[in-house]
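subagent[fold] <- orchestrator: predict structure for attached chain, return tokens only, no commentary.
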Amino acid sequence: MKSNDVPREPGAALGIAYRDIPDRLAAELPRLGIPPEQVEVAMPGDLDMTGRAHESWVVVTPTHVVGIVPGYPAPEGVFGPYERSKIEKYRVFRGVGSNFLQVRTERLFLDVIRFSNRHREEFDRVRLYLEESKEGKPEPLRVFEKPNPWVCPVCGLALPGRNAVCPRCAHEGELMARTMGLMRPYAIYVAGLLVLMLCGVSLDLLPPYLTRILVDDVLTSKSRANLLIWLVLALAGASFLRALLNIAIGRMSTAIGTKVTYNLRSRLQAKLAQLSVDFHDRSSLGSLITRLIHDVDYFHGFVQQMAQGFFVNILLVLGIGVMLFKLNPGLALYVLIPIPFVVVGTWFFWHIIYPRYYRFWDSQSKLAALLNGMLSGIRTVKAFAQEEREQKRFQDAAQASRDARRAVDQSTATFLPVFGYVFGLGGLIIWYAGGRRVLEGQITLGTMMAFLGYVGMFYGPISALTMFSNWLTGFLTAGQRIFEILDTHSHVQEPVKPVTLPGVTGRIEFRHATFGYDPYQPVLKDISMVIEPGQTVGIVGKSGSGKTTLINLICRFYDPQDGNVFLDNVDVRDLRNAALRRHVGLVLQEPFLFRATIAENIAYGRPDARPREIIDAACAANCHEFIMKQPSGYDTRLGERGAGLSGGERQRISIARALLCDPAILILDEATSNVDTESEQEIQKALSVLVRGRTTIIIAHRLSTLKNSDIIYVLDDGRIVENGSHEHLMEIKGHYHNLVMIQTRLTKLED
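subagent[fold] -> orchestrator:
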């Protein structure tokens, strides 16, 4: 294993070497009776057991695991060796700021090595390697061959999330190119816009030129006094045409900008809907809403800036530069004196302000997320009288946003006056140099007036371009946040060649399925089970045993890291997600109803359902009676998350929603947990008829609801520890029997 001071290649597999260990570690091993050539894995840490920064190692041989702190005498520097054959379990114990790799022997966890959070990924893989070796799985070393998901494979920068898009690799030039690519469908409109802009710039260049003629040929020499009226009319006509062009440019750029933002917002919403559940689990709702609503509007501003700001100013600078050198090349050189200062200042501004803009947008996202959480849980806030606490949290977040915005605006407020002063000096230089030429008779007064007019027009666009850099920093930050979502890959991919099932019988099979939301902390471990068509299956176990996770794999909200899940002997990864979920009716533990009518909520899975079908589903779920007591019956509009109904009523409507789809597989995840005993009995009567000929999976803490199940699976610590009928499981007096006895005693105490 390479030592800590040897850099690793970005994106390479985690630094695991099987025999290559540093000399200082190799010198320690013989004292422990470990030949260096027997080392399978050696992984470096960065803390000793007291938490002080120090090199440390865990060494794995075919027979032992040992933690070593080189330079420390035994026993302070040696932890183990522990015989692998006697180790019952491995775990990474997560503390505050540091972690421990631990082994359990004789029901006691012992520390092997301590390390900081930056090494947690490596030691999670060490733990997984040890567990897979213990279970006899083939090729356990493959866990070290995958790239680090927390590090960019290109530049090596730490990512904001597992497998997230690298902010450093999202180059500004690429963002601009992709933004321009959004204009491709409107190429004809953009071309027309460019023509109008060229015409507008030409008109802008005309007044100073006409002013020179007016001063030299009419007002000063009076030789062509008859041109006065025509020159004035020409100036008025140029102003009128410019106003018309501004109207046309504004209306066309607005049309293009609104179309671009509409399409981009639609793409972003579609992408968010397409991304797998794990993305939404780790993403802040407030941040996503901010990107969808606020950040997309920057693209409308981008079109406006291109049409009426940036491009126009670029063309003006070029056109005015040509006119200045045409009037007087020597004097035109003085105009360029402030330009180097402007370039250096703009570069400085860009590198100072851009990071501050990102912090500002990040603080806004956090503020939105905090506000969303508070308003979503307003009942909980009031129930525990935490209004003042939430107000304090919001004020702290608002203060952070205020400070970030102040840093941006103060920098801008300093930058712009400095540039204004530089431009003012440039104008004074022209007054002095040009005035001397007029006095010496080198140029005419009209030429001087025209030159000053062009100079004012020249510094104006340059000043606007420096302002544009201020807007561009905000746009690039918003663009990066939007393209970050568009570039995110869903972990649940649609199959390239999907399999079509003509009819679904409802047979479900788990074959050695292992899954963890953190892949190194499995929730389900080597699950194998078969649910036959038409069976009613109960899933029980303690909280955290993996019951709901099992359902998530059936619905393919997640894919197992190992093993397979089959529907009718077809791997669910070979089915289109929409096709799979059409055959699965899911009633979640926490019902969610939309801000819509009751009928629309019931028909959510089948928007084309007839009223009679909606009513039949409501009757089957025992909710028709209370619906008819509502002011508008089925047309009663519900509030946020079904506000206006009790918890049990919301649950029964969600059951009706699942039943209306007539799925081949019906999944009830604690579906009766929020209803009273009488309503539960009515629902059970309805379900006893509806489950016939349908595969039904019931997760329940009330074990009495599972007595009539064909088979019950008992989960414990992510594994199936028992299965059988209610009577069989009670006879063997195992986990299920213990759970039933506990519930029975609790029921008696309640009575």
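orchestrator: received. Logging for downstream: The chain has a mean pLDDT of 78. The longest helix spans residues 387-439.
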